[in-house]
Amino acid sequence: MSTAQVSAYHVKGHQYINGRWQTGRSQRRLDDRDPFTGQALLEMSMASVADVDQAYRAAEHAQVAWAACPPVQKRALLNRLAVLIESRSEEITAWLIRESGSTRLKAGFECASAANLARECASMPFEVEGRILTSHKPGEQSFVFREPLGVVGVISPWNFPLYLSMRSVVPAIALGNTVVLKPASDTAVTGGLLIAHLFEEAGFPPGVLNVVVGAGSEIGDAFVEHPVPSFISFTGSTDVGRNVGRIANGGQFIKRVALELGGNSPLVVLDDADIEHAAHAAVVGRFLHQGQICMSVNRIIVDQALYPEFAEQVVARVRQLKVGDPNEPDTVIGPVINQQQLQGLLRKIDNASSAGLRLLAGGSASGLLLPPHVFGDVPGSQELAVEETFGPILPLIVARDADHALALANAGEYGLSSAVFTQDMARGLDFARKIVAGMTHINDITVDDQPNAPFGGEKNSGLGRFNGHYALDEFTRAHWVTWRAGKPQYPF
Q1: Residue ranges of the chain with pLDDT lower than 50?
Q2: Distance CA 257, CA 234 (A)
Q3: N or C, which end of the chain is more exposed by having fewer CB within 10 Å?
């Protein structure tokens, strides 16, 4: 096996800068462990501010030549990347299971989505279009070109590490930008180093993709405020996203930002819904990847006429979910990512119990395994209804009628994804359009991300849109250029 090839056991524990693997210069070390077994997966020296600077300078140096690379060559490299992901799907899936605690079902889905994304973005170099404008000046021709932004900084999360890194990295590079990627420390391999191996093996030029693995407390601010990147793409919590936006627009160098932040996605069950369908969707939408998805179903709002039967069906389904080893194909609930995450979830459960909420399903934690919890008759003002849980906890909220359900759905600071269940299409469309969110799905789960559809949120769920021509607009800039024939007459 060549040194560029990806192995499930031999990913390099080094920074990837300008096409070379090098030891990080921070005094801190990363101890990357399997959240289910506790087994050590990777140890490495983390990146310092000096490493970040080197990575950005390498990206800056490579960008001019990469932007000038013919579209047919960019397409060939991106198609090669897609083929590599598909051919190495078992190795990549194994890493996702071992490092992020993904179940085999979720890991396979994430790997396939990353390959599909790369293949979809392979056409992007040919989709960049300009415009010819009508000019009011005699003899002038007026053009609008779409140009690459330059260097893009990407900060990605741990929950869908491969896909959510690739979702920014691949379109940015396809459109002529170069990238410096900072993955979450909990998923340094699947969110960054493994991607670097894939890009290296695909044959991308040095400096087009650079990966720095470092502690946010040491390099986070420097990563955003560095003078080279003109765009910062961040996916993560709202609190951290606020700080990213503040730094990006409050320092010496003002930057574009795309912020894909937290969510508190409601799934609304109206009085004419198919109860069995809605209950099945609610369980899948909440407990996929232990509820550790930004657009996961975070709260269920059920019309009071359907609530008793709906709650009964949800609980019956939840009690059948297998909790355990994420590598086993029938496991639905694997480990949460780390001890800190588990303690936060246990506090929410204790608070709910102290508040007198009715526990319909639950169980004790074992290691980082937390059985699925369901609470019934949760008030709309309660913590579980107001905050993003990011774990296997599901609150059921009772609505008096459709108007009350809409008010509950729109309550709060988030507006990422949402869903509504009804057997009347016109009613569903009318209700969906009144939800203040970036995405609403009728008779389906809140978890969806398609390569040609706009992905993004409203309110405190973020800024910007990913995918398709929406990503094209995000990762390029409009450049107005005019040409004037003859000698114009100026006023003085």
Answers
A1: 1-4, 8-9
A2: 8
A3: C
Strands 419-421 and 265-269: parallel
Catalytic residue among 111, 200, 294, 474: 294
Q: Is 425 exposed, middle or buried (0-12, 13-18, 19+ CB in 10 A)?
A: exposed
Which residue type, as a one-letter code, is found at position 317?
R
Find the catalytic residue in 260, 312, 328, 458.
260
DSSP states of 461-473: TEE--BSHHHHHH
Identify the helix (H) or strand (E) that includes residue 161: helix 161-174
Strand, helix or coil for residue 60? helix
Reduced to 3 states (helix: H, G, I; strand: E, B; else coil), residue 363 is coil
Q: What domains does the chain contain, in order, with CATH numbers?
A: 15-261+461-480 (3.40.605.10), 265-442 (3.40.309.10)
Looking at residue 249, its pLDDT comes to: 87
Task: Indicate if 260 belongs to the active site.
Answer: yes
Which residues sit opposite 31 in a β-bridge?
43
DSSP 253: S
DSSP symbol at 185: G
Q: Which two tokens stand for residue 35?
A: 């959240």
Asked if 387 and 369 count as a contact pair (C-beta separation under 8 A), the reply is: no
Q: Give the residues across from 477 on adjacent strands.
A: 147
Rounded distance between C-alpha atoms, residue 267 and residue 310, angstroms: 13
Q: Are 379 and 294 a contacting pair, CB within 8 Å?
A: no
Q: What pTM was computed for the model? A: 0.94
Alpha-carbon span 102 to 93, nearest angstrom:
9
Residue with tokens 């190795």: 91
Query: Is 294 assigned a catalytic role?
Result: yes
- Which of these, 395, 404, 450, 396, lies nearest to 431 by C-alpha position? 404
**Closest by Cα among 188, 180, 197 to 157:** 188
